[in-house]
Fold these 4 entries.
Entry 1:
Amino acid sequence: MRNYKNIIYAIACLSFSIIIGAAFFEHLAVWPQAYAAPPASLGMFQGDYGLNAGAFWIKIHPVTLILFIITLLLFWKTDRRKNIAIPLIGYFIILVVTNFYFVPELMDIIGTEFSTNVNADLQSRGSLWVTLSLIRTATLIVLAIILYLGLTKNVGKQA
């Protein structure tokens, strides 16, 4: 019976790690190109075949939240509770901040009309967005470590 709980915990860890991996991918492959010479460099997001990372993010976040909640419920009466609750709360706060700052700012930046003239204001906004996003990603890594450390705790112990 306990084994399925550990599998669900591991899947929650995997889902959270996928989010971090995708964030790393975007920071290494997307944002340096996107903000290189805006608005021309933002063309990768525009048109019928533009990059739509939102299709990934809109699906992965609800799945991860559901896995977190199920895992927390399964391990509520164990020492693992804090290792699940702390990352869940931190992740939820990050999602709120993402919804109110990161997504609207990104949509505004990438929605800029095409021009071959480099816009210094867009570069500055993009640079700030990337810096704050790196802080967000580092926070996710710390939360993931806390989550993974819960796997080392004895399930039989009551909190």
Entry 2:
Amino acid sequence: MSWFNSPAGKQLLLAEQFVIESLLQDKFGYFAMQLGGYDCNFLTESRIAKHLFNGGKYQNISFFNCAIPIAADSVDLIISPHIIEQTSNTEFLFNELYRTIIPGGHVIFVSFNPYSFAGVRKIFGFENVAPWNGNFMSANSVQKSLISTGFTIDEAKMSNYQFIFNDQSIGFKQSFESIGSRWIPFFGNIYFIVAKKIEASVTPIKPKWVKPRKLSVAINKGRL
């Protein structure tokens, strides 16, 4: 059983949905896709009409998160919530996402920050259940890998500075958010990264022809 099915996990997903919805305001297109087997619909406020889900309550397509059976350059928006923690080969994941997304399209990543209360729980909790047995990558490392893949980073932010040790509830206190975002901004439990696929357009270059020099031919007139 995933921790996200616990009361605290569901509460965190709803908090993440609130942030993701704010990131979707200027995202348009024809197809949007949400990865992961979550019952939370992160695309509720999306202005994109066609939604694909590969798991959870709204599932309408089935595939493994890291191997996307969709044609290249065909999806306008992909939500990737906590998929980084579930894969051992993030390079392959990022390449698949880059292949699938259209030029100018976006991928929104959500993941646990290893330098946070969530990271402390992973290290000292010794829990063999997702996400605590997964791969926690820092936001900086993820951004470098995405740029190496070909993405540009549109936006990155930290969120949730709450204690995350009780599975029944995350006792949200606004004062923690205010203090955390001001004094320890890089230590939020969750980070969000909006990556954009940009492919350089090919500009045809008109060949510059070099006019050949006139050849001077020496003609020796000889006697017949």
Entry 3:
Amino acid sequence: MIKGRVAGRVWSTRRIGSLPQGALLEVELENGSRLIAFDPLGCGNGEAVLITQGSVAAAFFEKAKAPVDALIVGAIDETA
């Protein structure tokens, strides 16, 4: 898994029908790079998140074949 922090939302007025309900978020990773991740959880700006990528992210959606390569799977409350 990858740790990052939500940097903002990506607004899209047109999207394919197989993409489920959720938001597209820009996430800044610990190394300073950024990626766009699908967020089914409703995470907010500045929130620390865990991301999974690849076939694991796409396989999360049971009812549809969603073209998702990066998926937010958790919000981090605190680290020790």
Entry 4:
Amino acid sequence: MKIILSACLCGINCKYDGGNNLNEKALELLKSGKAVPVCPEQLGGQSTPRIPHEIIHSTGEEVLDGRGVIKGPEGDDVTDEFLKGAQETLKIAQSIGAEYAVLKARSPSCGFGMIYDGSFSGEKKEGNGVTAALLNRHGIKIFTEENIDELLKEVEN
């Protein structure tokens, strides 16, 4: 059993501000050989560090369907890079036979269930990031660092 894991959660400095979101349980999945780290934003061609981006008044599903965009606070459109990163992440997931993913909560790429609302105010709304939406469409079960214990229970049994 293999798991796709947001690279920032295992301490890799790929977050938009050049830092990471280290989560010890995620790091243990990596160390155990059960997880493969990915950063969809880097896979899509984004640099690190980079300005923050949000899905503007839509969701990852709508972006996948061509009805939404991802922009920075100054209006730069990075939708294509996010779509490419999602596709590259899916290729990796499929190549290793991943059934699960642990992704960074609220991210425009990786958020699942809740994402930032596109106003750059810190407000959140229901929805998924682009990569989470694509992986979900392909039957990969998504978790975030906030419910990683549920995954750990599931894979123990």
